[in-house]
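User: I'll paste a sequence; please echo it back and then give the predicted structure.

Assistant: Echoing your sequence first, then the prediction.
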Amino acid sequence: MRDVQEFLERWEHTLDPRRPERAQPPAQVLGYGEISTVLSINHPLLHNYALKRMPMFYSLDEVDAYISLHETYIHHLRDRGIHVPETRLITVPRAPEGYTVYILQQKLPRHTIGNHLIRTLSLEETLQFIRHVLHTTRRVFQLNMARGGTLALGFDAQISNWAVLNVEEGAPILPEEPALAYFDTSTPLLQKDGREQLNPELFLRSAPSFLVWVIRLFFLKDVMTRYYNFRLVILDLIANFYKEKRGEWIPAIVEAVNAWVQDMPEWSGPPYSTREIRAYYREDAFIWRFYLAARKLDRRLHGWLGRPYPYILPDKIER
């Protein structure tokens, strides 16, 4: 990977985060996260990889701590029988200061990735897909419960974080035994004896400077803890179908999920309702629209002050 390291160091200097398609060679944005951007770079060394670009590190000590935690997180996921594609992390110095970490994973065919796959599956097949995702996700929370708080993983089970590796292109039929892969490891949430191991300040690096104190005071704890709650993880999974333009399926999904989880000891709380899902999604969508608008304003402020803004932002968020 030394040649990839050297290439990315050169490439980062050509990148304008506002126009990644003008870098040399050009980059295509595959997706946006809250703290990272997924890129495809048109170069022989990288054409088989998806790269998550994370430019929020101030020191090599921060980078080393993150890389160590990331490796530990993937180890525990695999120990729970969850398939994570081969993953490599590369650190690149960023001018004028700081470091960018690139997470490299094998680029998966578009038709295998969950949020694209559900556009071709029937409702019945989608319900089976969700059932397999739920039972795979359950392994995380079963072991969290068994460890009694000594070690726990946070987990984001959104459908867009999964792929079905053995689904055929052009044949939108879910295999009887889908080969699931989970690839969203950029936020390695891990608690030891109730203490979060991921530096929470990393979440705030990409936040608008004028909102950092508000987010730290009112939202950071919720962001850092919601993915340790099995019920909230599933709630988020269901609500995401609104974002994926499958809102008409929500009532059937709610009914099926309620039937599946009622006997799971890792799950607790009242049954889901369509009203709860809709309310959760509307609040979440509003927050992220507002957050993106604030980040764009922050980018403009950086420009006025002559300071570089290292994050790649979408024009808009589809909700």
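The chain has two domains: 9-106, 110-304. The two ends are 38 Å apart (CA to CA).
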